[in-house]
Model the fold of this input.
Amino acid sequence: MSLWPARRKKRLLVTYLAVAFLLLIVLPCLVFLFLAEDEKLRVEGDAIKINLLLHGSNSVITLGLEEYVAGVVAAEMPASFDLEALKAQAVAARTYAVKRLQVPDPRVKNINAQADLSSDPQINQAWISGEEMKRRWGAWDFPAYKQKILRAVTETKGKVITYEGQVIDPLYHASCGGFGTENSEDVWKYKVPYLRRVPCGNHPEGDREAVYVFKTSELNRLLGTELKALPVGKFSVNGGGIAVKEKTASGRIKTFLFAGKTISGAELRSRLGLPSTHLEWRVEGDLIKFTTRGNGHGVGMCQYGAGSLAREGKSYSEILAYYYKGVRLASLK
Done:
């Protein structure tokens, strides 16, 4: 009688047991280890320290500069972006931090004299911890995104942007709306040589329209005006209504007239909480509807534009040189 059937059964049994062991014991352990990755953002040789004021509190924590930069990149730019875009963001974030160490921000010092920077994006740069990254991305995506951001930070470690030997103030914004960036003096008072207007292609994922609706009474309260609910035909400057006084080269609002009061585009955006000054409006009785495109002040690096350039094969240094004119990269000593 042949022994082959018995041997075959034995081999099949051993195979089944091995597969079961892998599925029930080994694989769950590997998944657990993968999902339980350490939330710390360690970068070797992180000597420069940042005292960071946590948004919404008076608490200050001390971080290494590179650890801080990793938290800014995670907060300020989608981790799904190409590596070169994340590197450009890392260098911009690091440069911003170093500039604030050189020239302290009085808004931060007025809150807590021990702090160098705030994690409030309305004051400085947004920042999140490793724990917050895991909550935002989910335990499954966290390890890969974390390593990607740490790579962007590590591979640009110590790099800052300079103009004529001085560290710059590297302003950036989420999306220009496809209309290009702005000259600094068209948004604020001062002309900055490296913050010049450049074309920026469409990036639909960051250029969605947003609609904001206000009552005239609410606008009066926010803007300190005496706007009246006038018929559409009379809703003009001469009728005591609203109108654009001046636009920038990209079509954003530079100055606005509200009931005879001149308001800058930057002030309008800030007071009304609008994402952009590239806007149109429509009057509907006692309501005014603002429709905006893009997100941010429009000066410096457009983050979604940086993402597009990275997908086209541009390096982080090429991206930074495109948005900040006449600059050089330097290494911190």
